[in-house]
């Protein structure tokens, strides 16, 4: 298995790299973080970078993220043993189609998209015989985007989920898991439909709610936008972080995980109507019960090591003085 | 005016303290943070602490937060030049009634509650002639509560809002503002009804939304609670921080700023319905427009010094490894 090899890698021994050539299609926050880690952890001999925009590609080159740079997707994957597609989910199909005739037999083709059923539906029809297509999703990121936003260690301690297909080759899956483990990720498997429901509630709906409340606040007549901004530290500012995420990425997530998102939004609205009624009728007991229950969820998240126990996310308290 | 005096205080010169006796009624996160700052910045000769629970009072004494400790509210305020009420807003009226016959003529009586119209309605009828009642609200706090949660510098760089009454004495207001400035706060004035609308959108509704989505996630049948917790770092965990705030405080806020909260919740739901429709009909352009607009709000908040520009609130990325 890979565990001994990984131990060697961690110890910095001069072992052969995991892949000869890794091709990164898309070089935003995720792609560029992978590139940085692959380089520093010596996981490949050669990194090929391809992206649609000449400007972004040039920036990737300035940052020295790879060895070869091209806007030609087909060219980019020709020698790759591992191809990682890190693009807005809406273009997954077009990318798969563009590379289908250049993929090497035995290559592993994976992605990092936040929706899995749609990505599979888009890409699978284009995957040639002999290429191992394994949909993946690292649960990592920040509100920033683009090649400058990536950094070494982004995936450290984070989950990477795989939604293998019935025909997925077990060895290829092991190899891909070992790759993500080498980036520091914990790995897990589930089926695509379940993934999409889980992500709808832990990621997609939270982002949508955040975008929505920031929009509501910006549109009020009775409270000015400058008041919203000045006094945002009393709760609101937390939402603005998620609402500053990449608009293209999130537009595509909404369009490509529609059913699960609408299902979870309906649940959210139902619960909000109940809470709203408790407020209207002054039912303090109901409010207290709900507000107590949710405190326990926070505790579990901290105990599971999924967030810091520091008050206020450990925000620097002096941050607030910058604007004085 | 106070500015020279403040400069002296900041320089650590041995000037007379601002108040002879400050009484803190309620010694949770806010009260205990005030106590710590008053002590270290030498803003009073004597700090009297009073709270309902014997256990909490004992803890305050163990922490050495004051000079005198009593559960007798009337006794606590007898010699006070400044009385600060830091209790859940629902008990403001009862506290005012309990102290009304012991307040010293010329004393300043203020509070820190998140709702102002209700606090005024509850307290004002009990305020005796000659006592300066000035409703206040420091926009500061964390998701933690109780006397152990307070810390020095909590108010540094944060806003403290006052909602003076038509009869409020200008000198008393200046003196109270100088006190908060000495705690590091920036101060502002507005009328109580407007305060309650502003806070409904920047603080109350964000907390309610956070409590609500955490409740929704915990109640799903298709996604387990352990999945929600494991994969929470993809957005959800941000909401759990607000949803871990003090249940008693937030129950009272909901009950005592009902009208403004219901108004803002209605706006939020209306906007969410619009967004939901855009998702259902696959209207990518509408989604992209909204998601772009909100990014600008985040930028303004950072430019105004109201949040850190660090990705992910500057969270320690290693926090995620604690649970491995």
Describe the structure.
The structure is a homodimer of 324-residue chains. The first copy, chain A, has 324 residues and is an alpha/beta fold. Chain A folds into 2 domains: 3-190, Rossmann fold (3-Layer(aba) Sandwich), CATH 3.40.50.720; 194-321, 6-phosphogluconate dehydrogenase C-terminal like domain (6-phosphogluconate dehydrogenase C-terminal fold, Orthogonal Bundle). Chain A contains 13 helices and 9 strands. In chain A, the strands form 2 sheets. In chain A, strands 3-2-1-4-5-6 form a 6-stranded parallel sheet. Chain A has a 3-stranded mixed sheet with strand order 7-8-9, with helices on one face. Chain A is elongated, with a radius of gyration of 22 Å. The interface between A and B is large, with 122 and 122 residues.
* Strand line-up in the sheet with most strands of chain A: 3-2-1-4-5-6
E-strand count of chain A: 9
Q: Based on the coordinates given, report the CATH architecture of the largest domain in chain A.
A: 3-Layer(aba) Sandwich
The percentage helix of chain A is 40-55%
What is the rounded Rg of chain A?
Answer: 22 Å
Number of helices in the DSSP assignment of chain A: 13
- Main sheet overview of chain A: 6 strands, parallel
Quote the beta fraction of chain A: 5-15%
Number of domains of chain A: 2
From the N-terminal CA to the C-terminal CA of chain A, the straight-line distance is 57 Å
Structural class of chain A: alpha/beta
Uncertain spans of chain A? 318-324
Largest interface: A-B, 122 and 122 residues
CATH class of the largest domain in chain A: Alpha Beta
The CATH superfamily of the largest domain in chain A is NAD(P)-binding Rossmann-like Domain
State mean pLDDT of chain A (0 to 100 scale): 93
């Amino acid at each position: 298995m890979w565990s001994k090899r990984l131990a060697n890698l961690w110890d910095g021994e001069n072992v052969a790299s995991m892949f000869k050539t890794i091709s990164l299609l898309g070089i935003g926050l995720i792609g560029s973080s992978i590139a940085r880690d692959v380089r520093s952890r010596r996981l490949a001999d050669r990194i090929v970078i391809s992206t649609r925009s000449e400007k972004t590609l040039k920036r990737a080159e300035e940052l020295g993220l790879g060895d070869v740079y091209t806007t030609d997707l087909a060219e980019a994957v020709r020698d790759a043993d591992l191809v990682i597609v890190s693009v807005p989910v809406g273009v997954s199909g077009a990318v798969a189609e563009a590379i289908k005739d250049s993929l090497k037999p035995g290559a592993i083709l994976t992605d990092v998209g936040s929706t899995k059923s749609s990505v599979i539906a888009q890409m699978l029809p284009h995957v040639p015989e002999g290429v191992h297509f394994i949909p993946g999703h690292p649960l990592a990121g920040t509100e920033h985007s683009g090649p400058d936003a990536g950094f070494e260690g982004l995936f450290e301690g984070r989950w990477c989920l795989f939604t293998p297909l019935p025909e997925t080759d077990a060895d290829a899956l092991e190899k891909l898991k070992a790759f993500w483990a080498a980036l520091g990720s914990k790995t897990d498997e589930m089926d695509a439909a379940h993934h999409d429901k889980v992500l709808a509630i832990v990621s997609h709906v939270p982002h949508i709610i955040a975008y929505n409340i920031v929009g509501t606040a910006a549109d009020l007549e009775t409270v000015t936008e400058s008041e919203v901004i000045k006094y945002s530290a009393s709760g609101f500012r937390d939402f603005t972080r998620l609402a500053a995420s990449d608009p293209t990425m999130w537009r595509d997530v909404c369009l490509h995980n529609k059913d699960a998102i609408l299902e979870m939004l309906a649940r959210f609205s139902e619960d909000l109507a109940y809470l709203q009624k408790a407020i209207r009728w002054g039912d303090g007991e109901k409010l207290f019960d709900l507000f107590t229950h949710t405190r326990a969820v926070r505790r579990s998240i901290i105990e599971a090591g999924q967030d810091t126990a520091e008050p206020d996310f450990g925000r620097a308290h002096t941050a607030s003085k910058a604007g004085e």
